[in-house]
From TrEMBL:
Domain annotation SPFH: ranges: 21-214
One Pfam family from the record: Band_7_1
Protein source organism: Candidatus Thermoflexus japonica
InterPro entries in alphabetical order: Band_7/SPFH_dom_sf, HTH_17, SinI_DNA-bd, SPFH_YdjI
The protein, known as: Helix-turn-helix domain-containing protein
Domain of life: Bacteria
A GO molecular function held by the record: DNA binding
SUPFAM superfamilies: Band 7/SPFH domain
Domain Helix-turn-helix, chain residue ranges per copy: 292-339
Length: 340
């Protein structure tokens, strides 16, 4: 037998819940004369068939046909003065929620012409604050459209909006990436202004948005390539640069032991600076590289996988001759490819 609720209320002991569904599962059976208790900084919204209906402010309310007209009208002939009736109630907190956390789950790609790859990957985090401005609209959009009523899922949804706006703001900020750390306040204000309409459409006010950190990503080149941010040629060049860096560090260790580390280190620093700024110089060929290579040998030379080499051949970027079911690639063809 369905349970009939004579008292409808919710007390948030944590102070951290934006909305609470009553009952927590399924729909509730309510009768005329049931007591609805709404605490300070709360609003109760009746909900049925995907729509937010009658709204109650703080106080103790006795349900009558007079104070739930939208619900009664929706039920129409199904109601006919009968009690109990079925609906859901959403208690919405109208207090300000501060110190909500945001972060970038994936790096933000920012164009940075003339340096390195021409892009910089930034990751950041900070806090934001919100307040429900229109409880009925909030329930309609968040519960009725997004089907969200757990606080953490709602906040996750809002974070995705904010990170998207931050990417737009940073991409159009027209300042060098290295200077961004001095403009966190301006960035926060710009994101808040840009996101306000989106939050308003959900019945929310974005009260504050703060950037606490915005720094280059620590993603490896393998992760960048998996994200689709590196083509095969750039990936090969970076692999070669990594190999050269490791070799140089080993060499510096020996030179330092001989008392000549400082001067050698300065020269190598200049070399790596030029390598990463231009990204056009091809890696030096090993001493004994064959004039004609198999796919596997070409992959080892380029420091990529054989599948990458086959992809380059099939796309026409790397010239090769097919002999039977295999390919042969000349060293000159690879060098031509590396020249871009």
């Amino acid at each position: 037998m369905p349970r009939i609720f004579d008292v409808i209320e919710w007390a948030d002991d944590t102070g951290r819940e934006i909305v609470r569904r009553f009952p927590e599962e399924g729909s509730g059976d309510f009768r005329l004369g049931s007591q609805l208790i709404v605490r300070e900084s709360q609003v109760a919204v009746f909900f049925r068939d995907g729509r937010a209906l009658d709204v109650f402010g703080p106080g103790r309310h006795t349900l009558t046909t007079a104070n739930i007209p939208l619900l009664i009208n929706l039920l129409g002939p199904l109601f006919s003065g009968r009690s109990p009736f079925t609906a859901e109630v959403y208690f919405v907190s109208t207090r300000e929620f501060v110190d909500l956390k945001w972060g970038t789950p994936e790096p933000i790609v920012v164009r940075n012409p003339g340096m390195g790859l021409g892009v910089v990957l930034l990751q950041g985090h900070g806090t934001f604050a919100i307040q429900v401005r229109d409880p009925q609209l909030f329930v309609n959009k968040i519960v009725g459209v997004q089907r969200l009523y757990e606080t953490e899922r709602i906040v996750d949804y809002l974070r995705s909006i904010l990170v998207s706006k931050l990417a737009d703001v940073v991409g159009n900020f027209n300042r060098p990436v290295v200077d961004l750390a001095g403009f966190f306040e301006e960035l926060g204000a710009a994101v808040r202004a840009r996101a306000q309409d989106d939050f308003g459409a959900l019945g929310l006010d974005l009260k504050a948005f703060y950037v606490q950190s915005l720094r280059p990503s620590s993603k490896t080149i393998e992760e960048l390539r998996a994200m689709g941010l590196l083509d095969v040629q750039t990936y090969a060049q970076l692999q070669a640069a990594d190999a050269l860096r490791e070799a140089a560090q080993q060499e510096l260790g020996g030179l330092a032991a001989a008392g000549v580390g400082a001067g050698a280190g300065f020269g190598l620093a200049q070399f790596f600076s030029q390598l990463f700024q231009g990204m056009t110089a091809r890696p030096a060929a090993p001493a004994a590289v064959p004039e004609v290579m198999t796919v596997e040998e070409a992959a080892a030379y380029l420091k990529v996988s054989p599948e990458d080499v086959l992809q380059l051949i099939e796309s026409g970027q790397l010239k090769a001759r097919k002999i039977g079911a295999t390919y042969r690639i000349s060293r000159s063809a690879i060098e031509e490819f590396l020249k871009g």
